[in-house]
Amino acid sequence: MSEPFLGSAALAGGTLSRHALRTRYVAVHHDVYLARDAELTAEVRAKAAWLRTRGHGVLAGFSAAALHGARWVDPGRPATVIDTNRRRARGIEVWADLIDDDEVCIVDGMQVTTPLRTAVDLARRYPVDTAVAAIDALAGATRLRVDEIAAATHRPGRHGMRRAREAIALVDPGAESPRETWLRLAIVRAGFPRPETQVPVFNEYGVLIGVVDLGWRDLRIAVEYEGKHHRMSRAVFDKDIRRMDELLEQGWAVLRITAADTEATVIRRLSAAWDQRTPAAS
Prior knowledge:
282 residues; 40% helix; 4-stranded mixed β-sheet
């Protein structure tokens, strides 16, 4: 069994013997077991936490985001569940929130907060930068719109809504990684106009050259975050080189940012490109 399961149910149904349960599986919570060699992902943690509630809890926060398909959820984070049972358990964070019927959906047979409620919870409960990165990923996976998330913050009786609105105003589902979110937030906070995400660039014949992570079409400035995936294969590497050459031929200034860059170096490089492209510089 690669998924979490109730040990008592497996024994009662004859699926496993007590010896097999004891030797081949490990208890992650009381009566909740997992194969000893199973990977403890965010989704697995969520399912194990839900089983611990005996079906009464509602998975929320990062656990709900993972189950809705959001990428980049840290597997080391505790699972989050809304439940009346507040007894502490290792690896589980329990919230005592009120939740309306229309804020719950079923995912793989489990009660989970809807993508909309999940986004609002992330926005009101976590630091702004953490929340924005998480909601970027969630919105990208579920096609949530920023305006509908913002509208959902006006339900009465919820704490943290001022913080939530601050975070939601910065969300952009076009971000394809937490580092792209970090890059966008650094640029906006430095006072630059908000960049467009996933900008398509065409050549003079109307043929798509490629899509850049962040950019300003009017100034033809692009900012690219160079993650590990750009170096995973020779084919990807060669394609990136050809794309970069074509962008330069079309008059785009391209800033390639890596993990070695700090906010200060990003802003310094962008400022130099901006000064060269804006009328005030002439």
